[in-house]
Design a protein that fits this description.
This protein has 8 helices and no strands. It is mainly alpha-helical.
């Protein structure tokens, strides 16, 4: 029988907690801190790994909706960045890679529009990107809520609520 990913992650956590951490010299605070960090990341991975694709699809759908209907206008830099964005929008592949490509192209368009974009286009682009960024920030904070570092955890959503699968 091949152990599934959940079991493998749980085994790594158990090995770190039962074998590695007790073997660390108590005077070696850096090693103890790093071991605790590894355990924390493994626990976060255990929660996220099988939801990562759905989360990426949610983020991708939001940036695509944000970009929908934008009519880039401006000088050569804006037109070149708009063409790059158009190519990124039709690219295919895993959702996370597509999302990251769209975000890079969107960033390029924002920078180009700041140089030579028409004022009305710049305003529409900035308004859309700012609204998207607000939503994405909440998603990202929620995605990492289990790390326990958020200052306002009551504002956060469950991972299940973040994904498109629960919205359907």
């Amino acid at each position: 029988m091949t152990p599934d990913i959940d079991l493998r992650i749980a085994s790594m956590v158990r090995a770190m907690e039962d074998v590695v951490r007790p073997a660390i010299d108590p005077l070696n605070s850096l090693a103890a801190e790093q071991a605790a960090l590894i355990v924390g990341h493994l626990r976060l991975l255990a929660i996220q790994w099988n939801k990562a694709e759905s989360y990426a699809r949610t983020c991708l759908a939001d940036i695509e909706a944000t970009l929908e209907g934008l009519a880039p206008s401006g000088g050569p830099a804006t037109r070149a960045a708009a063409a790059e964005l158009a190519e990124a929008r039709v690219a295919d592949g895993p959702a996370e890679a597509h999302y990251k490509a769209l975000m890079r192209a969107t960033d390029s368009l924002v920078r180009a529009a700041a140089r030579d974009g028409e004022p009305a286009f710049r305003e529409a682009l900035h308004r859309g990107v700012l609204a998207f960024s607000t939503r994405q920030s909440l998603r990202d904070r929620s995605w990492f809520a289990a790390s326990g570092f958020d200052l306002n955890p009551a504002e956060l959503h469950s991972i299940a609520d973040l994904t498109m699968e629960t919205a359907r």
